[in-house]
Amino acid sequence: MTDQVDYTVVNVQNYVRFHSEDDSPWTMEQILTARVLMEEEHPRRINPSVRSLLRSIVKNDESMSRNGSFQPGDWVEVMGPDMKWKLDMVEKALPIGNSGEFIYKVGPRGQLKRIELRAPEEGLLRVFGSRPWIWQQWALLKVENLLRFHEGHPHDFERLDIPEYARYLWLRWINDPDNYGFLRQLDDLRLASASELLFDHIMKPFYILDEIRREERWDFTDDVFSVFSYMSLLGKGAFPVCLFCIIMQFVIPLLLLMESLTIANYDTWAKEDDRSYFDYVIKIFCVTDDEAQCTRLRVTTLMIGGVQMLYLLQVGPDMAAKFAQIIGAGRFVPEYSVGRVNAMRQIVREKNEDRIEQKFGLFLDFYMNSLYVYLLFILNLYNIFSKVDPFEVLYNAIALEFVYLMDENYVSLTWWDHDRRFLKAGVMEVALQGQVNITALACSKEFARLFDVAQRIVLEACENDSWLLNSVSQSNVDSENIKYMDKSELHDYFVTKKLKENSLWNHEFIKQPVDFGSFGKSLDSLHNIFSGQHRSTIFDRYRSFRTWSRWNKVLFIAEIPKVDELFEKDANGNQIIQMELERRKATEEEPFRNFDRDVGTLDFDEFVKKRKADVLSGRALRRNLIQVLRKGKYPSVLLQSFTCCIDGAFQWLAYFLQLSFPTINLVLLFLQGFCWARYIDILENDSAETRCNCQLVSDEYPAFKQMFGIFDENGLFLRYQCDDLLDFVLNITLSGYTPEEYLAIQQEQQMQMQMQQQ
User: Fold this and answer.
1) Are residues 468 and 535 in the same domain?
2) Which superkingdom is the protein from (predicted)?
3) What's the predicted TM-score (pTM) here?
4) How many domains, the chain?
5) Distance between CA 252 and CA 262 in Å, rounded?
6) Considering the domain boundaries, does residue 449 fall inside one?
7) What mean pLDDT do residues 389-394 have?
8) Which residues contact 652 (CB under 8 A, 6 or more apart)?
9) Lowest-confidence pick of 109-113, 199-203, 398-402, 528-532
10) Same domain, residue pair 366 and 454
């Protein structure tokens, strides 16, 4: 009888580590079983193959019931901190009680629910072709066409059930007679699990839009949103307030800086005599005002040190956490909504499909909340060094909070966007922008590359129009053609037509142009007057792409893969995925979609570290320049390259200051300790002729104040009178008399001199 073997993970690992097949007491069957157990319990993340991707989506009912939709070793896509889907391997699949649901560990991230995963796009493309992704583009345009910014309306963006409408469009498409071949592919019994995973994959953008609508895992009341965020999302409407904030946020610190430089009077001070570098350090970082009262310098120095400790222990860590969200890194909890919004904006920026006002808003939103803030804190540290009054230090620190939070405080005002509806609508629009690929929809070459369709076929479907699906004239015609309307659109169309016949008007049935802010509405009115066309407004950005007659052909032009070519029979006659596909792996020339060899891109902290390393090392700038040079056209590529370099330089400075700010603060805190020691030395050194000593003497002997008049009308010490006082005290010390006796003798001598003169 064979010995009982304990196949625990520890024993299996110890066996592999300390034994070979020759000296092991285990049989070959046990060795193979142990290796299978290790692969199942601890799958190795290696370069995926086509076969491994197909095995992750083509499953039998038994495996799905045992481990849910995915099992350890499967390849799935999970959304990273930058809101991009990343291909990675499932390492664990654990059941949640008896609910039939599972939680998964994928790469460095654990506790993932099924809804947070999707099947690998590369595998689904090889099974179903690109038709579903072309449909996805069409469905997103249909959703945008139906959405309204109309509170209380059934199609208002906060009320419309977006996934339900998308499901209706999906069923309508797959049951179209022109789509019969694709429907047969979906109904293939071998692809039952793949069909289910395909639908879930294609629906993810609509689920995300619905999450934003319902504010599930999103918080739009976060104080971090600013007027620059509105401009980055919505564009032109917030421009006047953004301009006012920029002016105020630069003018106020510059005035304070000029006032500090005037007080320091460096030019006059430097010309008095030769100065060493150490003298300059004292002049800049220690209070050297001749009119300062030394007893107050102690309190001022302590106040400055307190402000620096506040910056070091509170402002620094808080700004570091905020900086991670500003650069576009977000966890999937409400507290990190700003980070996810910025990540979606970065996606649109990388595609170069944002409007000019959005580009400017994103530029301001990033640099005014990163580089500007750090420069402002450093400027304020220098500014408070020149203050001699502790209350002035406190006032400057409070004023700084008002200045750098000005753009965020505007958002909290009741007249701005009290219920944050415009903000939420802007986020939904950016989510749409990130998914709708207008570059491919308006360029036959890019469309053919992205969806694997012959360029000639695409052009024929779009009537040989070089702009493909982007046509204002065709869009206007198709929008009035009932052939391309669904039930909801038909209802609104006929009701509106009847109202017009009766000279009535009702906004309930006609989508009205809505834009944020009076400035944006004024621009829209001017545009309508001079061009005769409506300017793009909220949920009406893609009007020119609503060429439904062309879409009716494009939706069915992609070829359907021959699924039989993916299978072969094993020795028992069962159909399995072809073994030859195991040798086909991702390469630099033919990469798999959404595959990144860097395993750290899914972890929040690792992602932030990697982003900082890329920027500070110059890799990010080099990558952006290469992208500009590849996609740009002469001569615009020269301007784009120049702006890319400028942006890279500012970005590098922002990241550098974020990392070095604590060090700068520590150095300045050390200098404050030196200044404190210097003040104490001055106060205790009675032989030094300083105003500090003058004050101590005058405080000890009040009669001297009247005798020498060492104060001016403002209560400040006068240098020449102070010097006379110190000489007088020195004479008293040498005479051996007490101050009172010495004063009496001096007064008697003065009276005798006056009598002799008379």
Assistant:
1) yes
2) Eukaryota
3) 0.82
4) 4
5) 16
6) yes
7) 80
8) 615, 616, 618, 621
9) 528-532
10) no
The residues near 717 (Cβ < 8 Å, ≥ 6 apart) are 291, 293, 691, 694, 695, 710, 711
Same domain, 326 and 251: yes
Gap between the Cα atoms of 220 and 334, Å rounded = 9
Q: Write out the DSSP string of 111-172.
A: EEEGGGEE--HHHHHHHH-SHHHHHHHHHHHHHHHH-B--TTSTTBTTT--HHHHHHHHHHH
Domain holding 400, by residue range, is: 227-419
Structure tokens at 472: 């204002």
Assigned domain for 610 exists: no
End-of-domain residue from the set 398, 419, 440: 419
Beta bridge partners of 575: 569
User: At which of 520, 536, 564 does a domain end?
Assistant: 564
Please check whether residues 214 and 236 belong to one and the same domain.
no
> What tokens does 453 get?
């369709």
The answer on pLDDT for 717 being more than 90 is no
Q: 564 vs 269, which has greater pLDDT? A: 564
Identify the DSSP state of 506: -
Is 105 a domain residue?
no
Measured CA to CA, the distance from residue 181 to residue 279 in angstroms comes to 85
Same-domain check for residues 466 and 396: no
Q: In the predicted model, is pLDDT for residue 488 greater than 70?
A: yes
Instruction: Tell me how crowded residue 606 is: count the other CB atoms within 10 A of its CB.
Output: 15
Q: What's the whole-number average pLDDT of the chain?
A: 81
Place of tokens 């982003």: 611
For residues 231-245, give the mean pLDDT. 87
Mean pLDDT, rounded, for 37-65: 74
338, 224 in Cβ contact below 8 A? yes
Query: Is 446 found in the same domain as 553?
Result: yes
pLDDT for res 293:
47
Mean pLDDT of 382-404: 80
Taking the C-alpha atoms of residue 292 and residue 392, their distance in angstroms, rounded to an integer, is 13
Q: Is the pLDDT of residue 140 over 90?
A: yes
Q: Distance between CA atoms of 360 and 531, rounded to whole angstroms?
A: 24
% of the chain with per-residue pLDDT over 70: 76
User: What is the reported pLDDT for 285?
Assistant: 66
Q: Are residues 242 and 367 in the same domain?
A: yes
Question: Distance (Å, rounded) from C-alpha 443 to C-alpha 454?
Answer: 13
Specify whether the CB–CB gap between 90 and 41 falls below 8 A: no
Say which residue the tokens 């009912």 belong to. Answer: 61
Q: Is 205 within 8 Å of 435 (Cβ atoms)?
A: yes
Do 472 and 368 share a structural domain?
A: no
